[in-house]
Amino acid sequence: MSADPSEDAPGTSPVSGATQSDLARELGVSRTLVSLALRGRAGVSPAMRRRILETADRRGYRRNTMAAELAGRRRTSVGLHLLDARNEIYSTILHSVQEELAGRERRLVLAVDSAPEHPDPRAVDTLLEANVGVVISTAVIGSEADIAALTARVPLIAMFRRVPGVDSISSDDDVGARRAVEHLADLGHRRIAHLTGPLFSGHSDRRESYQRSMSAMGAPADVVEADGYSRDAGLSAARGLLERPPGHRPSAVFAHNDELALAIREAAADLGLSIPGDLSLVGYDNSRTAGLTGIDLTTVDVAAADLGRAAAAAALRRLEDPAAAVVDRRFAPHLVVRGSTGAPRES
Amino acid sequence: MSADPSEDAPGTSPVSGATQSDLARELGVSRTLVSLALRGRAGVSPAMRRRILETADRRGYRRNTMAAELAGRRRTSVGLHLLDARNEIYSTILHSVQEELAGRERRLVLAVDSAPEHPDPRAVDTLLEANVGVVISTAVIGSEADIAALTARVPLIAMFRRVPGVDSISSDDDVGARRAVEHLADLGHRRIAHLTGPLFSGHSDRRESYQRSMSAMGAPADVVEADGYSRDAGLSAARGLLERPPGHRPSAVFAHNDELALAIREAAADLGLSIPGDLSLVGYDNSRTAGLTGIDLTTVDVAAADLGRAAAAAALRRLEDPAAAVVDRRFAPHLVVRGSTGAPRES
DNA sequence: CTGAAAGCGCTTACAG
DNA sequence: CTGAAAGCGCTTACAG
Lengths: 347, 347
Prior knowledge:
The first copy, chain A, is of the alpha/beta class. Chain A contains 12 helices and 14 strands. In chain A, strands 4-3-5-6-7-13 form a 6-stranded parallel sheet, sandwiched between helices. A 6-stranded mixed sheet of chain A has the order 9-8-10-11-12-14, sandwiched between helices.
């Protein structure tokens, strides 16, 4: 895995452009001097510095960061591991991470899982091979031993999961899911189903919190598992749930995320069920879509942009000081009540 | 610009992990042999190859792609320049590009503009410094001379804009905008406004096509320019448009993209205007949001996923053969009629 | 089948 | 203030 023998892609592009050596040659000075001047380091006379910068500009010199990092024995770029680019929560995180990085001379190298339902450890390998200095992962999977092996190679910022000894930026799913269920219970619902996706290690907090909340109110838990976490993946499970025989259909559904909630919404529309008349619905994430007129989805706000910013800040901090104290920021989610929830019809 | 003297970020992470030299030393062979074996090249006995791969695995060897590219005088990674990660069209493109690249040993380096309304040439600089072998840009800006200067450094795949001599993956905006206007005209609308964003070079096709279509039907063009292309940026312009005194408000709006159409929708809801009763609305992009029950937006489908796939394919092709014939793929958009358009009230 | 040498573009000590 | 040398991790000719 680490050394793929079938590699060696034929496709390559020839390298081009002026180098520091070219500039040094043109000016008749040493490469060292050019390097120093370009980086604004001490040890170059003002006049010389000006000449060098002017020449660099004229020649359209662009520094080869990869070579610089190799020579400098350092790594400055940030790797971001995303589960699904099309899910608004991840694109929001991408956006806020990028904003924090902008203007800080940090490159962003991306690894996106192609099958979000089954996160691939290889995705992070890409980042390691790209020699990033820190990895922000929105889906830290595997055992704590796996994670320890990873962090031995590169500092990790874990999002949405708390990992002991690792910088963690999370949202309290336990609280979020409880608020969702309690809100439905307060409205009078007892038959509350939970639509979620495949279970993978470290990502069961919402489900477990749902189960605990249900048992606390003495109601049976009803977990339905879709093939994934996207709207498309959730559609057939959603349909199955809503097509249950009369009396077995829940009066409310709490979905693991807004995408799955939207799947429920579409399925409900197909079956002629009205929301919240026939079915109350709670999502999770508070995506911008959830707040749209006509969607009006009750959901749990996790402040995705804040999470992204915090993760980027943690990454920059870790890059600057590998020995800094471990960060464990846990954000409190809050319920945003909109029009998709109401009292059950027959109660 | 090219040589920023204020650079030299303090934050760095020390490099770590086994190298080919480490493996060679452990096995008592040359570095060359290790390199050959790791890449599956000829010239290594099967037994030796096996030993080397086994050792690499055991030591958790991870190849340093940056060093490999530097030494091999080639570039294999793909740079993607996105205008706005939160706009669904770009996240869809990101997703499809990444899918095409997955499993092909291609890294994706991302540059996202922080202010999409004013694309920053520096964003692409980041990609150049990351030594990417090809740049896919969703917003090629500047004059053709600027573009020529860029393509002298790195092959470019231009999206959404046709650039002579440059691989271009575009959608025919002229046709798309005409279809939108004609659809509204067919419904009986004459007062059709166009909500767009700031003008920048190479991106005025929809606007111009709208203007031509309006003048073809003998109606006055009514272009309203928002501060940007995002929903938030469009909100105040949308409000201004809909708050016009009676008789001056358009009966239909054709928006530059779905984001701006959603801004119109929100503004209309705030003002108590119904869609399509009081106002017909056409977007552009056919984002997944547009098709949602409750949104039901008539829009122009540009097949964003296809565009992304085509761009990725063009990038891979260009990487493999710098001398390949220039690609100019132009997709035909089509109108998707949904519930946001209808006959004008008083007609 | 295997190895010694040169070099990619850059930076970091170390000498002047 | 300036330069010659060594080296980052790797690959590519070139010799055996």
